Predict the 3D structure of the following.
Amino acid sequence: MTAPPLSPGPALSPAAPPVPPADATEAAPVKRTPVRDRYFDLLRAVALFRVVFYHLMGWAWLPVVFPSMGVMFALAGNLMARSLKRPALHVVRGRMRRLLPPLWLLGAVGVTGMVIQGWGPDAEGHPGWWWFDLLYWIVPLSDPPYAEGLPGIHGLIGEDWAAELAGPLWYIRAYLWYVLLSPFLLKALRALPWPTILSPIALAAALEFGWLHIPFVRIDSAVTDFSTFGACWIVGMAHQEGVLGRLPRYVIPSLVPFVAGYGLWYALTHGFAPGHDLDDIPFAQSLWSFATVLLLLHLSPSWTEWPRLLRRWDRLITLLNSRAVTIYLWHNTCILVAATVWDRLWNFDTLADHEAWLLESPWPVLLLVWLLIGACVVCFGWVEDVAAKRRPRLWPDRDRSAPTRQKAAAHRA
């Protein structure tokens, strides 16, 4: 820490260096640590909890109440735009370095388990392609391959566990493409703000109404995801660039109900029902997520400190934000394990005869899921610290900068 400027005075010894003038000391630049936006931390934590809750409960209305994926992409886009004040190549490389190691650890565990259960080059009849497709576990420009229909481990994990493990990987693939495209999207956003923001929704409409058809499955899935959530990513960048702030305050609250209303109407008239949610209707998802993100960013209070009512949740929200990638990658597997273990309780006649209501309830399973997620945070979460070039921590539920600030304040005192 730089010592405070000294008052000019006689030297303590002939060897003492001259004291710089006060004005020269004051002119020296001060390096400031970026301040976390606690409102964004809260949104990310709620989004993660909603994802886990929805994948366990399966309630179709949950993505309507809070479209987690759109919110998570918007927050990531906002952070990406802020980072791109530095050289683009350095930023993209840094984002990839943070994103990929947690995927590699998941792949090391998951692919090893699949191979042990018989998955291999001859499993799909195309040995050469099998080896090539494994590269997507290293750089997921497309969906990494996985074994289908694998048997489970009795009493521990259910059948077809590889499909559950691979379920969240579309998010990593989509996130990677957004990162790679962000330098170009930012330039387009600065040149033509609203055409750039709305272009993914136009692409979603083209795919939905048959104006555009992509015959290749891997390319189609990537383009569909970009069209579904691309507007959320770009509007997050637009918020960081001040595009939304330049609009009159009444514009966004006036437009959001029409955009969201049309998206919801389209979903309701195209099969939205239990077991068939917004994810199955990408065009409706794009409109609803875009409208929700617009409103949330418009309302953004930019908290540098927690409001009084939320202070008690600081450590939990900090933990969820510090291990967001680990939680998202492993939560599906935790749900499958929790459900399998809980189902074993039906083998106890006393419980099955007298406490069937408890065994049928999803709430104890939800608690067990979060306990397993906590175990994954301890066992696998450290790789996020290594990827970010930080000292690994098993349970990062405190902001790293807080002790530093307190120590600095004590030193100044």
User: Anything to note?
Assistant: The chain has a mean pLDDT of 88.
